[in-house]
# Entry
Amino acid sequence: FIVGFLVGMTGVGAGSLMTPFLISHIGVAPALAVGTDLLFASVTKASATIPHHNFGNVNWRLVRWLALGSIPGSLTVLAILKFMNPDTVALASFIKHALVAALLLSSFAILVYPVVTRGKLKPVDPVDAPDRPVATVLLGLLLGSVVTLTSVGAGAIGVVILTLLYPTLRTRRLIGTDVVHA
# Structure
């Protein structure tokens, strides 16, 4: 309930909270914890899509640009894992290290978010944000790859970088767009 509430309000939390909890407190293997959290996050974020859309919080152009990068990024990571067929112990160790790195990056992103958004100009109509397709697709590629491997980062990293790329979009639209993309 708490994780679902936090994800709905901020777009941040599913991977950052649930995956480490599953590994450290429940004793779930890292690969299984990532997969479980990704399924959990897909349900919670999918259920937030309609309300965010109805409130006008989603920039669908940005969702499409992000998906153009994240879907191939995710599929590439999965294909590499399938092709390499890594030892499960080695994979678990790698996922734990990648999870720590993603959590540190997410924590940094959360810390700099208030600085990035301070004094941000708000447009009269937030729909008119200029597209930055290459940077947005690259962000999607990064998010798709990192989230597939660790289940962390779609919220914290995504919202902060979207804020840098689209500083005139209202925070609620950045969060809604990020949640729907995730």
In short: The chain has a mean pLDDT of 83. The two ends are 19 Å apart (CA to CA). The first helix runs from residue 2 to 10.
